[in-house]
Write a structure and sequence with these properties.
The structure holds two protein chains of two kinds. Chain A has five helices and 50 strands. Chain A is mostly beta strands. Chain A has a domain of 77 residues: Immunoglobulin-like. Chain B has four helices and 18 strands. In chain B, strands 2, 3, 4, 5, 6, 7, 8, 9, 10, 13, 14, 17 and 18 form a 13-stranded mixed sheet that branches. In chain B, strands 11, 12, 15 and 16 form a four-stranded antiparallel sheet that branches. In chain B, a hairpin with a 2-residue loop joins β9 and β10. The longest helix of chain B has 17 residues. The chains are: A mainly beta, B mainly beta. Chains A and B meet through α4, β26, β30, β43 and β44 of A and α1, β1, β3, β11 and β12 of B. β49 of chain A pairs antiparallel with β1 of chain B.
């Protein structure tokens, strides 16, 4: 019996007697950039490397077969005899140089326990057709299912029914509050500086929080560690230049990218009489430094600053009223991150972030003047830990803290000599969160990630608040809060849960549940997002918004991974959604909260995604069938109404074709149901009188409205194409260049930017009008590297 | 890099930008809303002829007649009263005035369709309906079997101290000047004002509050200037040599809110516009409008 026990033990637990060693892989591309989330197969067992290209596994001593693959790279295969703890540097070779058409999105969809995720790298971005020659990472993600833009040239991004302020936009982990230039025509992300953009629409892990609907993470690339390199491009409205190189050869590098537009100069060239002295430009600088201290410690420094400048002067003083308008606005972001591998199983990241946004504007209109400035400043630290206990168990935990200072608007206006000074006070808040999550293989084919985030928000003094009565009349009472005195405090648990079940034949099923809380709100009344929109904190009256989302999906690779297909369904509810009363005054308004109304939101839908990942022809088809609605007691008689960006059907087709080493082609077709808008249902006259001089009645026509968002704008669709021409693809010279020829909106569909009804009472004409921005729009960009 | 090709590309692109942003006619099939009664009612303390009610109803949006469609045969009364300590009203039935459809040659410009007035004003102005400062007023309307009511209040007027002219400029015809008005805002916060004026030359045969000049960009509340001595210079130009009667009109908050929403609704188009509903003060079904109690303080000036 005693021998039987030992025999049984040997049978069921052979590994108990084997000698183990630790293998650490460091996976990079040929430029030493980490290849994130590469698939690692060791002795036929698959795992994923982390976002820094690292993975540590414990293996049985002996013959080891290793295959490392990632979608944009050729697989790396090697067999070796593992005889001791080892560190292996794996350099993957990019497919780019040969095929140039590989698409990167969610290649690990089947095996990775993260659903509702998409990723696009800069190589793919640079091949897509662009409007006016400007590569825009933020616009490109709206080609993916479940992610919508607000329409032509709209800044807002709407993910699964959420609002434009419900996306956590990160630049190297730094939150970005206003990610747009030119009133939303372009994002602040310079295609030259970034490595990739990743979007999480659901199943958001516990390490992310603060927004209800999505995480949009933009990652800039490391500079070249071996030699000085440069790249750039010259386009219709802007030019850009990047320089990168080693600080300490092989160890540390820098990259600095800058761009500036010359829209004003081009416009003056075209229509000098119309443009006059008016001007607009934006410019920005991205910089990133990385210092490899030693094999276990690394420092990354990210810096961004950008500014938009707009001025308008009307010299026509026929009515004695000068009109002058000027505004400057921009972000400055700085972040320093220390990454440390403490031992084979434990690593941590510590980041300190400074975030600043500011707007200054001034208007002169005859004897009236107006000056306004607003903005916010964040100081943020976070510390994240990962403990890989074994091949089947991983823990993550961390702490996040932010000190917010909001400047809702300080300014003044005048009428003649009379000045009206704003007394709106700055607002301050602590925002913090702690989280823990575990990633565990319950069975070989069943993985679970369960996490809990606990978030905390506290608006504090010093500030003074004017007290208003229910009718919005100031009572004359002012409440003063001392420095650090609590004004409003909230805290919520945010459970996160996701499940992956692998099926046979390269397929899997995933489930997720996410609860998210959002303590900051964007105050805007318009359909577009403006730099003048205000971020405001939760307060006594304005409670945090809470969302629940459940999602389920089926994922499958076909034809040995050549194709990938997925279908996801989601259902999301959102409480305490904020809207402003129609016509609300947001600027210099001490009683901003009196202009707000609150309601709920609901969104549900199905997303289909089919991708071809290899071959001469690559691309994807994304389709979403969805419904998004809002319910506000003070709107639409309390009945649910469609959200403005409710889009029943949304289709994107993206294709790239490798014609020859010199020529590549790409095309994009998009179709979407028109936005839901409120249109008048009648008209009446008011302020009636009789003009004795003109001998006719005088009055003002006022629109009558009924149901909210009861009218659908025309469907949006267009086809874009682009050709990339590389004159000398096989050149061994240091200087290389290519041309990108794009045609945006090939069949010149007049997609409305907005619609309105033009009323000319004297001529008795009432005519619907649609204004569109971009009919067929060719552009050319010359890109170079040296 | 072929420099000539680059320059050509930029010039071509500049032409492209110049062609961007166009407008096209577009058929918008609007739904028809329910028919609304539109109430425009005034009572003030200085101008008895300008205490009246206009009743109209709306029209289909694409109707190009552009006129006020009158509501005839309505029973319209206005009653004076006071507010009691508990917030309820006590209406004085003896002050009730019946307003009838007015079609009198004594109204400058003749007839305004839908106009209801206390016609006593033409024969015995001293006995005609006139607002008194500090009093509340009840408007009652009966038409087509429906009843509508509204109340308003005449707050103490904020007295205009003086009006001066200056800031001269030439427009295409006249030499013009701007006016500066001077007044002290009361010490108590929460006062709201509207601004109206009449120009003798322009206003000779005009009638109605709709024929007054006004400026919607002047600040209407004292939220930021409570208790201060104010000097306001509206942008509007006035011909030199003409006489201007400037009315500083004090109103209660709900009346101010209505006219504030009216100003937002009257000019509301473009990509960033949002539909604005008027902040109606009239109660009843399918009705919009305001009963405006105006407490006037007036100064006249010869523009120099």
């Amino acid at each position: 019996m005693r021998y039987a026990f030992w025999i049984l033990l040997v049978l069921v637990c052979p590994a108990c007697f084997a000698q183990h060693h630790t293998l650490t892989l460091l996976i990079t591309d040929s430029l030493s950039n980490p290849v994130s989330n590469a698939t690692v197969r060791i002795n036929k067992k698959e795992s994923l490397a982390d976002s820094t290209g690292k993975i540590t596994v414990r293996l049985i001593r002996g013959e080891t077969e290793l295959v490392v693959s990632s979608v944009n790279y050729y697989p790396y295969r090697v067999s070796f005899d593992l005889t001791a703890d080892s560190l292996l540097h794996v350099m993957l070779r990019s497919r780019e140089s040969l095929l140039g058409n590989v698409i990167v999105t969610a290649s690990r969809n089947v095996n990775r326990n993260q659903m509702s995720i998409h990723k696009i790298d800069v190589g793919q971005l640079q091949k897509l057709p662009v409007v006016l020659g400007e590569v825009d990472p933020l616009k490109s993600i709206t080609l993916l299912p479940g992610i919508k833009n607000g329409g032509e040239a709209s800044a807002g991004i709407y993910v699964r029914g959420g609002g434009p302020d419900q996306n956590l936009v990160l630049l190297d982990g730094i939150p970005v509050y206003n990610p747009n230039h030119l009133l939303g025509f372009f994002s602040i992300f310079n295609g030259e500086a970034i490595r990739d953009i990743e979007v999480l629409k659901g199943g958001i892990p516990a390490e992310y929080g603060g927004r209800l609907s999505s995480v949009i993470a933009v990652t800039t690339r490391d500079g070249n560690k071996d030699s000085l390199k440069g790249s750039g491009g010259i386009g219709i409205i802007s030019s850009r230049l990047s320089l990168e190189g080693p600080l300490i050869k092989g160890k540390s590098s820098f990259i600095i990218s800058a761009r500036r537009t010359y829209i004003d100069q081009v416009a003056r060239l075209v229509a000098h009489d119309r443009v006059g002295n008016n001007g607009y430009f934006f410019g920005d600088i991205n910089a990133r430094l990385d210092f490899v201290i030693n094999k276990n410690n690394k420092l990354d420094f990210t810096f961004y600053t950008g500014q938009d400048d707009f001025s308008f002067v009307d010299d026509d003083d026929n009515d004695g009223r000068d009109r002058r308008f000027g505004a400057t606005w921009g972000n400055t972001l700085t972040g320093l991150t220390w990454k440390q591998q403490i031992n084979k199983k434990l690593k941590q990241e510590l980041s300190a972030v400074y975030n600043f946004f500011n707007l200054d504007s001034r208007i002169v209109y005859g004897t009236n003047g107006f000056q306004f400035s607003s903005g916010l400043t964040d100081y943020h630290v976070h510390n994240d830990w990962t403990y890989t206990a074994s091949n089947w168990l991983k823990w993550k935990w961390g702490l996040h803290y932010t000190w917010h200072t909001f400047r809702p608007g300080a300014g003044s206006s005048n009428s003649g000599v009379q000045e009206f000074k704003s007394v709106i006070q700055d607002q301050h808040a602590h925002e913090a969160a702690a989280y823990v999550s575990t990633d565990i293989n319950l069975l070989p084919e069943l993985n679970m990630i369960a996490g809990l985030r606990y978030s905390y928000f506290n608006q504090v003094g010093p500030t003074e608040q004017v007290v208003y009565d229910e009718a919005g009349v100031p009572t004359g009472e002012v409440i003063s809060y001392k420095r650090g005195e609590s004004i409003a405090r909230y805290h919520y648990p945010e459970p996160r849960f996701s499940l992956l079940y692998k099926l046979k034949q390269q397929a899997s099923i995933k489930l997720s549940y996410t609860r998210t809380a959002q303590y900051l709100h964007l105050a805007t009344t318009s359909a577009a997002t403006f730099p003048g929109d205000l971020w405001i904190p939760s307060s006594k009256l304005v409670e945090p918004a809470i969302a629940h989302q459940v999602a389920a999906g089926y994922f499958r690779n076909i034809a040995n991974g050549q194709y990938e297909v997925s279908i996801e369904a989601y259902y999301k509810t959102m409480s305490r959604q904020l809207e402003f009363k129609p016509g609300a005054r947001l600027l210099l308004n001490q009683n901003l909260e009196g202009e707000m109304i609150f309601g709920t939101g609901k969104a549900y839908g199905v997303e289909l995604f089919l991708q071809k990942k290899t071959g001469r022809l690559t691309g994807w088809i994304g389709y979403t069938l969805s419904r998004t609605e809002r319910t506000f007691p003070d709107m639409n008689e309390g009945k649910p109404f469609p959200y403005r960006y409710d889009r029943t059907h949304d289709l994107s087709v993206v294709g790239n074709y490798y014609i020859s080493p010199k020529w590549q082609f790409s095309g994009v077709f998009v179709y979407g149901t028109g936005n839901a808008v409120t249109m008048p249902t009648g008209r009446f006259v008011y302020r009636v009188g009789y003009d004795g001089l003109a001998e006719k009645p005088v009055f003002t026509s006022i629109n009558q409205y009924d149901k909210v968002n009861d009218y659908r704008m025309p469907a949006y669709h267009r086809l874009d194409i682009a050709f990339t021409y590389t004159p000398q693809p096989n050149s061994t010279k240091r200087f290389k260049s290519n041309w990108n020829f794009s045609i945006y909106n090939l069949y010149s569909r007049f997609n409305p930017y907005f619609i309105y009804i033009k009323v000319e009472e004297d001529e008795r004409i009432i005519q619907g009008k649609k204004v569109f921005l971009f009919p067929i729009t060719p552009s050319v960009t010359w890109n170079f590297k040296f | 890099m072929n420099g000539r090709l680059l320059i050509r590309s930029i010039l071509f692109s500049a032409w492209v930008i110049g062609c961007l942003s166009c407008e096209r006619d577009f058929n918008i099939a609007l739904k028809k809303g329910p028919e609304q009664l539109v109430v425009e009612a005034y009572i003030n303390n200085e101008l008895p002829l300008y205490n009246y009610v206009i009743l109209t109803h709306g029209q289909e949006y694409f109707d190009t007649s552009f006129t006020n469609i009158p509501v005839a045969g309505a029973i319209v009364t206005i009653t004076e009263g006071i507010m009691l300590g508990d917030g309820s009203y006590q209406w004085d039935a003896s002050t009730r005035k019946h307003l009838t459809e007015a079609e009198s040659p004594q109204i400058p410009g003749g007839r305004i369709p839908g106009l209801y007035m206390d016609t006593t004003v033409f024969n015995n102005p001293a006995q005609a309906l006139n607002g008194r400062v500090g009093k509340h007023y009840l408007l009652e309307i009966e038409t087509k079997g429906n009843r509508y009511t509204a109340t308003t209040f005449l707050p103490p007027p904020v007295e205009l101290d003086s009006v001066t002219s200056g800031h001269h400029f030439m427009d295409s015809i006249y030499e013009k000047a701007r006016l500066t008005i001077y007044f002290k805002d009361p010490d108590t916060i929460g006062n709201t004002q509207l601004y109206y004026w009449r120009i003798n030359y322009h206003h000779g045969n005009s009638f109605g509050w709709g024929a007054f000049g006004n400026n919607r960009y002047l600040p209407g509340t004292d939220d930021l200037v409570n208790g201060e001595y104010l000097q306001l210079t509206p942008n509007n130009g006035f011909p030199v040599g003409d006489t201007v009667h400037f009315h500083l009109v004090s109103v209660e908050r709900k009346v101010y809110n209505f006219w504030d929403s009216y100003n937002k609704a009257r000019d509301n188009s473009g990509p960033f516009a949002t539909p604005v509903k008027l902040a109606s003060t009239v109660e009843g079904s399918n009705v919009v409008g305001c009963f405006s109690g105006f407490s006037l303080s007036t100064k006249s000036i010869l523009v120099k």
